[in-house]
Amino acid sequence: ISWQPLSHAYADVLEDLRNYDKFTTVGSYMVVQDTKMTRMYMPSVGNPYPLGSVRDFMQTNGKDRYVIDKQYEFLLYSQHHNGWLRKLRA
Question: Which residues contact 74 (CB under 8 A, 6 or more apart)?
């Protein structure tokens, strides 16, 4: 598992996802923390924060190589909503 716990800024998280990708083995996870920030703050400040980075990564570098694994989101709430990215192929 690779955790992305550092900056929550969109550009930083997207760069981390692209960098951690090469170290994440097939079947393992990259976990982006605090994706809830996007839902909380984007309407007021316009920064897509971590969840925006996940969405863009999944449409570009991660497309057809990762899936969002929802099994760790309990009771329809998670600090890391859509942040569990399981690698399917290199």
Answer: none
